[in-house]
Amino acid sequence: MSKSFGFLKKNDRTIDYDKNDRALFYYLMRVEPSAALCIACGACTATCSSGNFSSLDLHKIMLSIRRGEKVYIAKEITQCVLCGKCQLVCPKNVNTRGIIFQIMSFLQSSQL
Amino acid sequence: MKFHWFVVPFSAGLIFLILYLIILYTKWIVKLPKSDKKILSGTVFSSKIFNIVWEIFSEALLHIRIFRKNVLLGYMHSSFAFGWFLLIVTGAIETQLFASKPINHLYEPIFFKFFNTTAPNNSLHKAFAFLMDLWLLYVLSGIFLALSKRFYSRIMGLKKTTQLYWTDQIALISLWLIFPLRLLAESSTTATYQNGSFLTNTAGIYLEQHFNISNMSIYLWWAYSIDLLIFFGLLPFSRYMHIPTEIVLIALRHAGFKTKNEINSFSQIEIHSCSSCGICIDACQLQSVTNRNNMVPTYLFQKERYGKVLKPDLYNCLFCGRCEEACPVNISIINIKLARRKERLLKSKQNYQYLSKIQPTSTTTEILYFAGCMSHLTPSITRSMIKIFEHLNISYYFLDKDDTICCGRPLMLAGKIQDAQKLIEKNTDLIKASKAKIMITSCPICYKIFNEEYNLPVKVMHHSQWLSESLTDCNKLKLNQSAKTAVYHDPCDLGRGSNIYDEPRNVLKQLLNVIDKKAIQKEKSLCCGGSLADFYLNENDRVKIARNAYVQLINDEDYLITSCPLCKKTFQKVADKPVLDIAEIIVYNLS
After folding, report:
1. Contacts of residue A34 in chain B, CB cutoff 8 Å?
2. Which end of chain B is more exposed for a tag (fewer CB within 10 A), N or C?
3. Options 3.40.50, 1.10.10, 3.30.70, 2.60.40; which CATH number does B353-470 get?
4. B557 three-class SS
5. Could you tell me the pLDDT band of residue B128, with boundaries at 50, 70 and 90?
6. Interchain contact, B354 vs A54, CB within 8 Å
7. Bridge partners (DSSP) listed for residue B514
8. If we measure between CA atoms, which residue out of B145, B143, B132 comes closest to residue B200?
């Protein structure tokens, strides 16, 4: 499958920081501070093994963590196979596998 | 009846210990997985029993594996175990032969000199008294070494020694006191009756002259007895639980029990067999390079005993297997950690519906090439493999050429064994559909899981194995010899993980001069630090570990050669010499 890196027209949407729950972001800042290094360049998404077949998009997840979009993250993260390619290509040396693991263990203990 | 009130603490301690152990072991053995229990009854009446007895003698008493690590350390461990064992056995025989009847077998051998004050009069009795003193001296010399190890562990080849939990510390002090107290108590009696031998008699005479020790006799016997009570009372709740448990472990292991994917009561027996000897501390690169302690098995099992294991203790580990290799008790450390990881992520489930999009294709080729995710990030390896295939005119099918699906081992390492199963099923379908006979993979991580968890109709080979076979097989592959020197680095999953040490070396020997680094090769090889098993290690620490390993591996050799894409990628960050895969160096030397 090929990937489209062109521009798409997207529908309007709002991110309501007052309503969103940023607990996951604060949790990650505590247990895996390298998450703050992410520049959302998308190298992880480009190399992703699962992303070839599914909607999994790690750099979008990294953005959603800051925004507190927990439902989206919970849905997407279940497609990851933890193969670790994202970690090897990351230009900012973010511990991406560590982040995904921490998200998994955070989500299993928190109510959605 | 020979009785004095001071025997009560000892007897109470011993009875408590025996009852406690019987109840605990019965509970554990009853709880063993039902499927495995049949092998237990089959073992009792087979020749395995001789192996069991021999291993109990050589490992639980003599500690031969520790002797191999360091003679002094082995002597120290064996002096406690074998020395005490000899004291008990010789004491029991001595009581049987020379005590005035009736004999009280529960405590009389322990307090023999107090109850039997007639000096040895025949040569046999003298020999026994001599032996008892000799064994006591043997144990005392071990205590002297143990004390000096606490101050300066390097004399025994240990850079670091275990920091003990408070129950362990009290138990340790009580253990160390048992034998000096025994010496003092016996000397105080022999000072009056001369019923000892070279050690106790001499000590008795000396101490009588200077301290009037015979007046304190009864207090010393009390102290000896109470100290035994403290030790026996603390034994089940401290690291000294390994003394009885190791015997059970050896028997069950020979019967065929092992820890796999879940913590059962056999794993509990393994955990309690850890003696916190501390040999694994020096083996752990995370400990020596990044100064972390929590994942080192000796500390992990300490926490296991008190139910205080935290997430980083389990997930901050490279799974390189160096600790398991070093462990003198052969505890399956990695399987226990993996099973504990599984328990941590039970509720989190993955969703791999997209796998159904991938359609299997059938081929007519005999050889299947599975590069693996990591090799796709080191295209020089896959390109070299393809070049070799083409050079040999071998038709092959590149199974994961465009879109890879993972082999499942990274998921497994995270403890998500059920989710990994979905990938295993999918891959098995793909491989079966291809109808090939041999599958070659470039990645040791994939190789390990293909061998261990998959049930495949094809022969799985790591590319180093296949290359070695092609080289020996009617000179299919012709290579130029070069004068360059190289060091071969054994990847964890290929070496310790899959026991492949010789094939890559056979290949390299025909190409260049391979320099041996005995201290850090084969079973003792270092981890590059890139491991997929660690979820906590940040990039800085990974680089530190890689640099530390690289500096030890390379002095002035021309190449660092490995056979794992992940090792290659990790070492490349710190290397000042080319880091090559075994396939690449072959392509360089093709004639």
Report:
1. 538-539
2. N
3. 3.40.50
4. coil
5. very high
6. yes
7. B486
8. B132
* Token pair recorded at residue B371: 């590069």
Domain ranges for chain B, please list them.
62-237, 244-344, 353-470, 479-588
> What is d(CA B313, CA B3) in angstroms, rounded to the nearest whole number?
51
Mutate to test the interface with A, among B314, B351, B568 (most CBs of A within 10 A): B351
Output the DSSP codes for chain A.
-----S----------TTTS--HHHHHHHHH-GGGGG-----HHHHH-TGGGTS---HHHHHHHHHHT-HHHHHHHHTT-----HHHHH-TT---HHHHHHHHHHHHHHS--
Nearest to B486 by CA among B463, B505, B466: B505
Tell me what pLDDT residue A12 has. 84
| Beta partners for residue B581, in sequence order | B562
Considering only the beta carbons, identify the residue of A78, A105, A107 that sits closest to B344.
A105
> What 3-state DSSP class applies to B407?
coil
What would the mean pLDDT of B264-274 be, rounded to a whole number?
A: 93
Which value, to the nearest 10 degrees, does the dihedral of the CA atoms of residues B104, B106, B111, B117 take?
10
HSE value, Cβ hemisphere, 13 Å, CA-based, for B307:
1
- Candidates B311, B318, B319, B352: best to mutate against A (most CBs of A within 10 A) is B352
Distance CA B202, CA B191 (A): 8
Same fold? B244-344, B479-588: no
Architecture of domain B244-344: Orthogonal Bundle (1.10)
Beta strands B438-441 and B485-488: pairing type?
A: unpaired
Q: Where are the domains of chain A?
A: 23-109
Confidence of residue B401 (pLDDT cuts 50, 70, 90): confident
In the prediction, which pLDDT does A112 show?
54
Closest CA to B573 of A100, A56, A93, A11: A93
The torsion angles phi and psi of B465, rounded to 5 degrees, stand at -65, -45
β-pair partners for B236 = none
What pLDDT does residue B37 have?
67
Name the architecture of domain B479-588.
3-Layer(aba) Sandwich (3.40)
The CA-to-CA distance between both ends of chain A, in Å, stands at 33
What integer pLDDT is reported at residue B83 of this predicted model?
Answer: 95
- Decide: helix, strand or coil at residue B27: helix
Q: Is the peptide bond before B102 cis (omega within 30 degrees of 0)?
A: yes
Helices (H), ranges, B45-156: 48-55, 64-69, 71-98, 112-115, 123-151
Q: Look up residue B186 and give its two tokens.
A: 């016996």
Q: Is the pLDDT of residue B570 over 80?
A: yes
Radius of gyration of chain A (CA): 14
Q: Does B345 touch chain A if contact means CB atoms closer than 8 Å?
A: yes
